[in-house]
């Protein structure tokens, strides 16, 4: 009997120690001050872990107090064993959350990559700091690298596999993005997913597209497709409003894939065919700023991807959808939404700050040097670097060195001043 009580006591102590380890994430990761995330980011993560620790710890304490004195009986031992067994399974699920953030945060130990990721956090924060109450309560994003082709996001509040709500937006980018920093507008697109949900546009935008396309007589299948694709077109527009032609140039570059992929059309995939997605990006430029470099980009794109080889049924749908691109662009740029208090989505941004002429003016300052980005938000600064790349004024190695210094400084300022997006440095 005493042996059984002793075993149960030992197990309860072991379980208690593992539960208490949940709040030791910061100590376990042990980031140095130079590479650490912001205080607010830690607060968000630790508050979630501490809450789970408190809940599991309280349940274990109640069970131990109640049943350990009765452990000399079969009924008491069975009851305590059952509770601890349930807690073991729940703790294993909770450690999925712990391990997720452990994996994400240990990347920050890598001297250069950790500081570059901090700069990506600053870009995402600037992207989301816009004039709407729903965006004032978003927690700061945490960026990390992983394998794969494209970027992705795990939004705040989405349940992790352990059924614990994710406490902050996680933005995953391929490792290669850190070597092609002009394409970091992918971070802005992923942050845009969070914004679209918070603003209620994931519900309003497809309705607006259906209504607008119905007014011009678009067939029901096309209305259905554009409504489906709205969940990606909305974040594309968000990235465009943050960084102008930088976002457009990135979409054009990363989606320049084999024709079978570019023309791929699915009735279940929320991603538009890359062929149409890129054309829509050019159209947004045209409707916002008139003629420009995007007109030549469009001609090149159409030349690269002739639709002659596309199967007839798909080709017919793509051709009809392509003809609706100007209408779709107008809906995206000009529809006034009730969830935005009667404003259009671009009204949340200062598009004049990323107008091509303004970006070129800033880019010209590199001629006498150094590059002067004073007064520009981080997302607009990113756009200036894209202009420099398009102009070919710097070779790729020079541009990468310049952007590395810029992105690291952006992350350092963000750590010192969490509201850096509002400072227009």
> How would you describe the shape?
globular
Query: Over all CA atoms, what is the radius of gyration?
Result: 26 Å
Major sheet: arrangement of strands: 1-3-2
Note the total helix count: 17
Number of strands: 5
Low-pLDDT segments, ≥5 res: 421-425
**Which percent band covers the strand fraction?**
under 5%
Average pLDDT number: 92
Q: Give the oligomeric state of the chains in this entry, treating copies of one chain as homo and distinct chains as hetero.
A: single chain
Task: Quote the distance from N terminus to C terminus.
Answer: 70 Å
Q: What proportion of the residues is helical, as a percent range?
A: 55-70%
Q: How many strands, which pairing sense, and closed or not: the largest β-sheet?
A: 3 strands, mixed
Could you explain how this protein is built, in words?
There is one protein chain. The protein has 425 residues and is mainly α. The protein has a domain of 108 residues. Helix content is 62%, strand content 4%. The strands form two sheets. Strands 1-3-2 form a three-stranded mixed beta sheet. The chain has a two-stranded antiparallel ribbon with strand order 4-5. Strand 4 and strand 5 form a beta hairpin. 39% of the residues are buried.
């Amino acid at each position: 009997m005493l042996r059984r009580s002793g075993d149960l006591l030992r197990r309860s102590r072991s379980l208690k120690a593992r539960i208490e380890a949940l709040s030791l994430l910061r100590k376990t990761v042990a980031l140095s001050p130079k590479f650490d995330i912001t205080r607010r980011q830690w607060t968000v993560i630790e508050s979630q872990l501490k809450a789970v620790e408190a809940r599991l710890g309280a349940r274990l304490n109640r069970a131990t107090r109640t049943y350990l004195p009765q452990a000399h009986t079969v009924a008491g031992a069975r009851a305590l064993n059952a509770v601890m067994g349930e807690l073991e399974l729940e703790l294993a699920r909770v450690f999925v959350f712990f391990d997720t953030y452990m994996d994400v945060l240990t990347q920050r130990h890598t001297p250069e990559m950790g500081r570059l990721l901090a700069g990506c956090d600053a870009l995402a924060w600037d992207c989301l700091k816009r004039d709407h109450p729903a965006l004032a309560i978003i927690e700061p994003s945490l960026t990390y690298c992983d394998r794969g082709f494209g970027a992705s996001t795990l939004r705040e509040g989405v349940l992790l596999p352990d059924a614990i709500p994710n406490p902050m937006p996680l933005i995953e980018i391929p490792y290669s993005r850190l070597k092609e920093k002009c394409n970091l507008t992918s971070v802005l697109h992923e942050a845009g997913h969070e914004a679209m949900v918070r603003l209620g546009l994931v519900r309003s935008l497809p309705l607006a597209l259906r209504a607008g396309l119905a007014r011009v007589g678009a067939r029901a299948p096309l209305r259905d497709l554009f409504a489906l694709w709205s969940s990606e077109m909305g974040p594309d527009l968000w990235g465009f409003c943050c960084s102008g032609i930088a976002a457009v140039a990135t979409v054009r570059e990363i989606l320049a894939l084999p024709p079978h992929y570019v023309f791929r059309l699915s009735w279940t995939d929320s991603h538009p065919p890359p062929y149409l997605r890129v054309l829509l990006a050019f159209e947004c430029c045209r409707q916002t700023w008139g003629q420009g470099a995007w007109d030549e980009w469009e001609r090149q794109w159409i030349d690269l991807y002739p639709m002659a080889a596309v199967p007839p049924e798909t080709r017919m749908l793509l051709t009809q959808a392509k003809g609706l691109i100007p209408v779709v662009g107008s809906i995206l740029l000009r529809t006034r939404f009730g969830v935005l208090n009667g404003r259009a989505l671009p009204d949340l941004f200062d598009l004049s700050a990323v107008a091509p002429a303004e970006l070129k003016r800033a880019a010209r300052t590199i001629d006498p040097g150094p590059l002067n980005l004073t007064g520009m938000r981080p997302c607009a600064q990113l756009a200036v670097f894209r202009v420099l790349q398009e102009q070919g004024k710097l070779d790729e190695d020079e541009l990468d060195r310049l952007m590395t210094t810029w992105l690291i400084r952006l992350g350092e300022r963000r750590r010192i001043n969490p509201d850096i997006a509002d400072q227009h440095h």
